[in-house]
From TrEMBL:
Pfam families: Radical_SAM. GO terms for biological process: porphyrin-containing compound biosynthetic process. One of its GO terms (molecular function) is coproporphyrinogen oxidase activity. Residues 1-20 are annotated as: Disordered. Its main location: cytoplasm. It is found in: Cytoplasm. GO terms for cellular component: cytoplasm. The lineage of its organism: Bacteria, Bacillati, Actinomycetota, Actinomycetes, Micrococcales. SMART domains: Elp3. Gene3D superfamilies: Aldolase class I. It comes from the Bacteria. Residues 24-271 form the Radical SAM core domain. Keywords: 4Fe-4S, Chaperone, Cytoplasm, Heme, Iron, Iron-sulfur, Metal-binding, S-adenosyl-L-methionine. This is Heme chaperone HemW.
Length: 408
């Protein structure tokens, strides 16, 4: 089970990109995303494109993934070169999932090694892998560090066993400080992910999780409000009355509490759901997305973006592999964004980050609404004096509504 894909236009079989990708290419960075669509078990709330044993029946896909990922990397090399784009070393790379650490560590190392051989890395490039706290051993982290990974992001979600159970997470809470400790000793930067608002979660339980995450002293913390995705097991349980979702007021209280505790502990917000121990520890990869830079997404269902052209791969690993074996693009469809859509996306992405949206990137109607948004306490009046739209704490709770106002 995973979400529907957008429809889009047919994608050329040879992966050819339109000439518009060349405009301003020298001023944009290139990042790499590698989607590894395998997990040990599927968590009840998750609708990411991932396959667990119950979906696949055996380990074939997990163990042959590397062959297809390497084939797509070579395909990307050819397409980017033939499109006339300048050679750009990678600004960042991010292995996400699914659970990247579910495939053999040697395979992750080979994929990164090949990406470096093809593209190179910018000096100080950030190279992250996501990991589930119970899918990684110390020696795996050592091998990843030696191969060039600089950062690991652990899916902690909660420190409270009852909440982990509702989320159907399989790890022991004690595994999180253990793996965070290993990563730090080895010299990897560490991020942890939390989810607020699991059914039945109290404010006290959430506080326990936030304080636990802070006590492990990661470099970076992401805290997402649980989204009940249609079609997931959790959505079905809620529909049957097995679980009751937390309401919006409770989610807002959880956000305010987490924000206060993170800031008091020295973690500054830099995107609505992300906090870092210093400016240097902000995720370069996520910032590349929010700054609308170029990235190539490798793997089943992965999305890519080059200067307003977006495409997404077929979701299932079997047709994905077949396309690559046929030396054909694995893209299911693509979209060349028109000016209005690019404008909307630019505002939506830039408004969510602390750096904010320069006022001169807003159209006149949006600019006219900014004094009112500042009066409502939703955007920062001081930043506005400096011609920047930056959300306040209240504004971060209502980010989507602020963006709607700015683009109406
Ligand atoms: C897709 S997971 C990949 C990492 C790894 N598999 C894990 O779960 O630990 C990345 C993050 O997305 C977040 N996430 C996934 N589904 C979510 C949902 N329905 N609502 C909010 N956050 C979600 C979780 O915090 C998770 O750590
Ligand atoms: S481990 Fe991560 S990717 Fe896999 S099902 Fe759970 S949340 Fe989704």
């Amino acid at each position: 089970m995973s979400p529907a894909q957008p429809t889009g236009d047919p994608a050329p079989r040879d992966g050819r990109l339109p000439a518009s990708v060349l405009e301003g290419a020298d001023g944009r960075s290139l990042s790499l995303y590698v989607h590894v669509p395998y997990c040990s078990v599927r968590c009840g709330y998750c609708d990411f494109n991932t396959y667990a044993k119950e979906d696949f029946g055996d380990d074939v896909g997990r163990l042959t993934y590397v062959r297809d990922a390497l084939a797509e990397l070579r395909f990307a090399e050819k397409v980017l070169k033939e499109s006339g784009l300048p050679a750009r070393p990678l600004h960042s790379a991010f292995f996400g999932g699914g659970t990247p650490t579910r495939i053999p560590t040697d395979d992750l190392v080979r994929i990164l090694g090949t990406a470096i051989e093809i593209f190179g890395l910018e000096p100080g490039a950030e190279v992250t892998t996501e990991a589930n706290p119970d899918s990684v051993e110390r020696e795996d982290l050592v091998a990843l560090k030696e191969a060039g990974f600089t950062r690991v992001s652990f899916g902690m979600q909660s420190a409270v066993p009852r909440v982990l159970e509702v989320l159907e997470r399989t790890h022991e809470p004690a595994n999180v400080p253990k793996v965070v400790g290993w990563a730090r000793e080895i010299g990897l930067e560490v991020s942890v992910d939390l989810i607020s608002g699991a059914p039945g979660e109290t404010l006290d339980e959430w506080q326990t999780s936030v304080e636990a995450a802070i006590s492990y002293r990661p470099d970076h913390i992401s805290a997402y409000s649980l989204i009940v995705e249609p079609g997931t097991k959790l959505a079905a349980q809620i529909a049957r009355g097995v679980h009751t979702p937390v309401d919006d007021d409770q989610q807002a209280d959880m956000y305010l509490l987490a924000s206060r505790l993170f800031e008091e502990a020295g973690y500054g917000w830099y995107e609505v759901s992300n906090w870092a121990a210093s400016v240097e520890k902000r995720s370069a990869h996520n910032l590349a997305y929010w700054h609308n830079q170029d990235w190539w997404g490798i793997g089943p269902g992965a999305h890519s973006h080059v200067n307003g052209t977006r495409w997404w791969n077929v979701k299932h690993p079997v047709p994905y592999a077949q396309r690559l074996r046929d030396r054909s693009s694995p893209a299911a469809a693509r979209e060349i964004l028109d000016e209005d859509t690019r404008y909307m996306e630019d505002v939506m992405l830039a408004a969510r980050i602390r750096d904010g949206l320069p006022l001169n990137r807003l159209r006149a109607e949006g600019r006219d609404r900014t004094p009112w948004l500042a009066q409502q306490g939703l955007i920062d009046p001081q930043a506005l004096n400096d011609d920047v739209v930056r959300l306040t704490l209240e504004g971060r709770l209502l980010g989507d509504a602020v963006v709607r106002e700015l683009t109406a």
